[in-house]
Design brief:
The chain contains 31 helices and 2 strands. The protein has a two-stranded antiparallel sheet with strand order 1-2. A hairpin with a 3-residue loop joins strand 1 and strand 2. Helix 10 packs antiparallel against helix 15 and helix 12 packs parallel to helix 14. The longest helix is centred in the middle third of the chain and has 35 residues. The N and C termini lie far apart (60 Å).
Length: 638
Amino acid sequence: MFWRSVVAVTGVAAIVLALNKILNLGFLVGHTLLDNAYLYLLCALLIGTVFLFLPATARARRDAVPWYDALLYTLSLCVFGYFAFNAHRILQEAWEFMAPTEAVWVAAVGWLLLLEATRRAGGTAVFVVVALVSLYPVFAADMPGPIAGLPQPFPTTAAYHFASSESVLGIPTRAFGELVIGFVMFGAVLQYTGAATFFNNIAFALFGVVRGGPAKVSIFASGLMGSVSGSVVSNVLTTGVVTIPAMKRTGFSPAYAGGVEACASTGGVLMPPIMGATAFVMAAFLGVPYTTVVMAALVPSLLFYFGLFVQIDGYAARKGLRGLPRAELPSIARTVAEGWQYIFVFVLLVWMLLVLQQEALAPFYATALLLVINQAWARHRLSWRRLGLLIEGVSRSLAELAALLAGVGLIIGALSVTGLAGTLANDLVYLAGNNIYVLLVMGALTSFIFGMGMTITACYIFLAIVLAPPLVAAGFDPVAVHLFMMYWGMVSFITPPVALASFVAAGIAGAAPLQVGLQSMRLGSTMYFVPFFFVLNPALILRGEPLDIVVVVATAVLGIGLVASALEGYLVGFGRLGAGAAGWVSRGLLLAAGLSMALPGGGELGLSHLQLSLAGVGLAVVALAWAWATRSRTGATG
């Protein structure tokens, strides 16, 4: 109980510290808190608490905090407290390269502590990557040509990691302290109030009764929750326990139901306005307003969900599946009457984000309004016990992300101090032979591989350092490049052999994990090719001339609709696309038609957008004519 209280208190202290900094409340009268001192204090409060609630091994008991975890917590508090106390000296005396011996030893201890915190918060794969890369400066001179760098002795490396503004206190930690902390708090509070229940019930009330209703509910509920929480797995576990059984009850196969939820939850992290934590880190890397990232991500994320929706509808139509009985669904009128007040929270959040452009302040005001509204209505009012659980849950979420981001910052520091970040970009361009398509495929595969072992935020940060520069140097739009890496980093959540979202959904659905993974790949197919499209033509991310944007987006919508229909074998307004070999021919032609319409023209393709669109129309006509001529008359339409 004592250590749980410590976790809760340190989380509250971190939020108060952030409020003091972001809102300039002046709690520390007569003292100016330097930026590095603020971040050191934030790390001191949060990172060590990971040892108090995340066990060292999966088999370790967590009914009490073992002595060694209490020791690790205390050491972590002391290490970051030491650097916070010396924040002014660090800047004045350039400790990143000329640190006193005492600071070097403290940094070395902090390095080990942070690696262990990263392992517990992010998993073994993240730990291995971070540990090896963070040690890279010591052995940089011994690496093969393309990845050789300027070597640094161990003491300098340790000091640089903790004293510079490029490593532990690099972009990830700065983004956390200035932007992300508020949204993590908001997402955690949302889970403990009636707002989450309200939006889930709204989804069931609106879509539960239509054909394939529970699956369409999954799109709405998981898209909303994933955008706020930023965690694919927790999204599957939160919404999937409701939507997957409902899908199975109405006739969806277990593997298909699991695939729908895996895709819907994965897409939530790509959905504005919040997009988990990654959007804010992306804005920091790009040096652009957060609204620029949100607007760019809007159309691709909607295309992803549109493709998923069309496939679900086609599956339900082919199988003759109905929605849930109206009697079992929450009433729209009653749901709205019981929770209409929560809508104001999201109105306030979106207004502050997009209109006032107050990204740092928005989640704090939204959280305050959410708590006031929740307590004003007795139905979901927090008791003292639930309030304690809420505070503890918020603190845990903050601590895990703080440890992960600070740990990933070690990668940035290692590449920065050796100069590899710049030279590696040139090497990748050289290996691609200046062929932009080869470079894009290399970038996609790299993003996919790193996405298999990391959280999306950690994966994105690494790729933004290593992969973004060569792609931008090749002439691609910077915002499109960063979104491209984020999308292909997310692909691993629904693609075997890892497919974490699919495998978690498989456990809920009671289906074979590989089957769910394969269904997820088909259902989430838009995620594989749309990133290539918006990198080749940024009009798809609303960057360019207005007329070009309208044309490219319109043809992309039609193209994605045809692709999804081809994959499912059913086109709305036409019916089934046939069976057997003849059916596969019509579906293949329709798939080619959809890709032609969605693919932006120009560049090295040698075809204009108009030519590709006309080709798509022609292929679609041929596909439908073939399907009409060959399909069986009995049961052919629907």
